[in-house]
Amino acid sequence: MSKQLRFPRINTIVISGRLTRDVDLRYTASGTPVAKLAIAFDRRYQKDGNWETETSYIDVVVWEDKATSCAENLTKGSAILVEGRLQTRSYTNNEGRNIKITEIQASRVNYLEWNDSNQEKQSSDDKFETSSDPGNTAPAMNTEFMGDSGASTEDDVPF
Predict the structure, then answer these.
(1) What is the pLDDT of residue 123?
(2) Cα separation of 149 and 151, whole Å?
(3) Which CATH number goes with the domain that contains 35?
(4) pLDDT category of residue 156 using cuts at 50, 70 and 90
(5) What is the DSSP string of 40-109?
(6) What is the mean pLDDT of residues 74-97?
(7) Counting beta carbons within 10 angstroms of the beta carbon of residue 23, is it exposed (0 to 12), middle (13 to 18) or buried (19 or more)?
(8) Across 102-121, average pLDDT
(9) Which residue would you say has higher pLDDT here, 61 or 127?
(10) Domain range for residue 31?
(11) Positive/negative CA dihedral, 43, 44, 46, 49
(12) pLDDT at residue 59 greater than cutoff 60
């Protein structure tokens, strides 16, 4: 009798960091907005009694109306929290090399900082949810800005 391995197929990532460059908003051939965010995130660990920081980087892909929202509200240095799934895609570059890219397909992006321009948008845009504390100008952590459409294919990505 053979043993069958059973485990859940989970592909979920939650990560916070800062944008390393402004949002790159493009459109697919069919006109669907897609944004590419590049974020840096840290890991702190102890080595020989001293605290060290290791910084890593990853790209995040955001689709449809949420992509334009990110392009309008985020800039280099903005702090965000991203929820989504990891995806690896590959292509052959101009030199004939096979290139693999691992990125996050965002299902949710939370803006962790708030500025005056976002405050003005809040009054006319129901997508923004803030804390009930009048002194707190940061959005609530459960503010959802991203939706994973699932309707796009790898061939649609214009990056």
Answers:
(1) 34
(2) 5
(3) 2.40.50.140
(4) low
(5) EEEEEEEETTEEEEEEEEEEEEEEHHHHHHHHHH--TT-EEEEEEEEEEEEEE-TTS-EEEEEEEEEEEE
(6) 96
(7) buried
(8) 79
(9) 61
(10) 13-148
(11) positive
(12) yes
DSSP annotation of 27 reads E
Is residue 3 assigned to a domain? no
Q: Which two tokens stand for residue 104?
A: 């996050």
Cβ neighbours, 10 Å, residue 39:
23
Token pair, residue 48, equals: 């020989």
Residue 119 in domain? yes
- pTM (two decimals): 0.70
Average pLDDT over residues 60-75: 96
CA angle (29 as vertex; 92, 111 as ends), nearest 5: 90
Assigned token pair, 99: 């290139």
What single letter denotes the amino acid at residue 52?
Answer: E
